[in-house]
Structures are given as C-alpha cells and as structure tokens.
Amino acid sequence: MSLQVDAARLTHELQVLATFSAAPAPAVTRVVFTEPDRAARAYVRSLCTAAGLSLREDAVGNLFARWAGEDPSLPAVCTGSHIDAIPNAGMYDGTVGVLGALEAIRALQATGLRPRRSIELLMFTSEEPTRFGIGCLGSRLLSGLTDAGAASRLRDRDGATLDDARQAAGFTGTVADVALPPGQYTAFVELHIEQGPLLEQRGIGLGLVTAIAAPASLRVTIDGEGGHAGAVLMPARRDAFLAGAEIALAVEAAARSTDAIDTVATTGVCHVFPGAVNSVPSRCELEVDVRDIDEGRRDAVLARVETACVDVAARRRVSVTTQVVNADPPARCDAAVVDALTASCVDAGFACEPMISRAYHDALFMSRVAPTGMLFIPCRAGVSHRPDEYAAPEDIARGVHVLALALARLAS
Ligand code: HGY
Ligand code: MN
Ligand code: MN
Ligand code: MN
Fold first, then answer.
1. Atom of ligand 1 nearest to the CA of 384
2. ipTM above 0.85, yes or no
3. Could you list the residue range(s) of the whole structural domain that residue 189 is in?
4. Which of 83, 249, 267, 389 has its C-alpha lying 20 to 30 A from 45's C-alpha?
5. Do β-strands 207-212 and 331-332 pair in parallel, antiparallel, or remain unpaired?
6. Nearest-CA neighbor of 98 among 24, 20, 45?
7. Which ligand has the minimum distance to the alpha carbon of residue 135?
8. Cα(153)–Cα(179) distance, rounded to whole angstroms?
9. Does residue 153 sit in the same domain as residue 103?
10. Which CATH number does the domain housing residue 22 bear?
C-alpha cells in the first residue's frame, strides 16, 4: 500500500491547535470545557468534517468521527486520544493521537482503500485531572468504570458540577447514556508521545506498549488553627501548611522506600488557606499522585502515606482527612493488537521495541471494553507536561504511518 502521510499539513494543524490555549506560547493550557477547549474542539470537528467523517458527541463531550466501512454493521476499529492539556503544558501530549489518527485516516482514504470495518476516531473528553480531580473521565464513563452517579458528584474548585460545566459547553445529553455497549469496537489503538526518554536514548522511533502503569490519586485535607502571623507564638501554633509539608515529604519517602524504580509519587497540588503572608495557614489541601506497574506495591505506598498522615496529625495536633480519588489496576495491552502494530512496523521497515507506559492514558480504560494497544513515538529528552515538550515531524509522521497500516490491518 503506497501510503503518503502529509507531515506538513499535520504539523500545521498541530500548531493551529496549540493556539487554543489559556497560556501564552509555547505553553499550552487547555482545561476541559473552558473557552480554549471549546475552540479547539470546534477546530478538530471542522477537520474531521472536511475529511468526510460522520460526527457525533456524547453527553460529556467525547467526540466520535467515523469513516464508514464497507459493512457498517460490523463493530468498528477505534483510535484516538485527547486534546485537553494541564496548565503550562506542551502541544503534543494527546494531540498527536487525535490529529495523527485523523491524518492516518486521510492517508488511507487517499490510497482508495475501503476498509471492511468502519474506522472511528475517538477524541476523549477530560483526560487530564486538572478540573475535576480525576484523570480519564471521558474514557472511565465510556468503559462503565465510572457511572453517572459518581460523575454527578464531581466538582471543580469553584464548586461547579460536571453537569454545570458540560451543559455550559453545549453538551446536554444524559451521562448515563455515555457507557459504550458491549462489543462496540474490535480494537482500540492510541498513538501518543512516550512522555519518557527511552525511545530517544535507544535511537528507536516506535514503542509498542505492552502494559500501562497503575495510577492512583489521593486528596489530603489538613485543618489546623490559623491566626495572626505576628501574634501567635510558635509553641502555640497548629500550622496546617507545615503539616502538609511533612506529609508531602512522607509521600516522597514512601515512593523511595519500595526500592523499585517503577514506583513514583508526586504531590502536584498544594492549596494553602487563607493564603496571606501574615496569616498562619489554617487549612492545606494536597493532591497526591502515586503510580507503579505493580499494583500491590502502589497500594503499599498509599498505605504508608495514610500512616504518615495519622502520625503527623497526632504530632502536630491538626486534623488530617484523606480521600482516595482513584486507585486503578494496570492494563495489559492485547497481544493481537500489539502483533498488528508490530507487523505494521515490519511492513513499513521501521524499528520498534516493546515497552511499558508510565503515564496513564485513555487506553488504560478502553482496555476494559476493547482489545487495546498503544504506539509511542519519541519526545525530546522525554520531556512532557512542560512548554518545551517536543516531537519531531518525522517521528510523528512515522507513528502515523504505522498507525494507518495497523488500522487498515485491523479493519480488514
Ligand atoms: O498523567 C498522565 O499520565 C497523563 O499524561 N494524563
Ligand atoms: Mn498528560
Ligand atoms: Mn496524554
Ligand atoms: Mn492519554
């Protein structure tokens, strides 16, 4: 199959998409349902429409763009990723798997291929935890892991509910209808930047993901006693932030305690109240992210953090409450899908190697409802979730080329 990936067009589209941001370039901030997200969604919809795909969106903004196959009654092959971005992020995380998948479809269309099965591009809503505190909200709901009741209890920092936010963005359907019917797809493949340094270090252009690490996140709320920074003497203080600081250090110690390089933990969010330089913090809220490819080891870290919270609470005479927001199992990718990706790399004459994903992805949840695989491309120095995140056009084009061959193979 003489496949032509239009790398220049794709590079341009990624650059246009990056302009829909709440932060100045080169940073990208695109939080779900905010104005930049809504403008970005409209742009992606316009590109999918121009490619002749039939579009639909569900109640939480998952976008489905379908290229009808010869037999539309057959379960489709699905590919996709996300376009939302955490604050001060880069322009390739997720977007390569959305616009790259669109380019793969366009390249296949240009060959005159008519796939037996339909091929559907799925752009997942709210993959990042930024607004509602939990990652992969769209794919969790699609997989049925999160139900409408749990989703209705989600709030952002302004107290807005998921329903408030989605309806304001024009998504007015019923969240209970989001879950995919069984057997909707025969395969799901996500193209994504590695978000790590291994491919670049090894000089390999393509990574075949065999497993996706098990993510967990914890919310820690510390309540002490505030007061005047000048008047409250040190022995009398019950400083909520300092208790939080000890807990954050305990998070780091817990991750290091496993002696396994695959265990990671981060206290990425810290809110201090009332947040005045001359007021002793009365409350501190932490959000903690813990991951490992071994679920038991990950859970042992969570347990150590909980124990540290009890210890700090007693020693510092503060109250500490914890809430596990999510603690998901790791995912193993489907051997047949990995084989299809491997065969496509071989057909195209590209080197590839198996690897694990330390980042989580929508594929982690799609693996619950469809045989799933992921294809990684290198990103410079492994940097991601930073404005200097970068993937070279030739690496992106190579990933799109292999994705296209794999989609054609899976849809035949
Ligand atoms: O955090 C993650 O692993 C993903 O990039 N949201
Ligand atoms: Mn991300
Ligand atoms: Mn991502
Ligand atoms: Mn992802």
1. 5
2. yes
3. 7-213+330-411
4. 389
5. antiparallel
6. 45
7. 1
8. 17
9. yes
10. 3.40.630.10
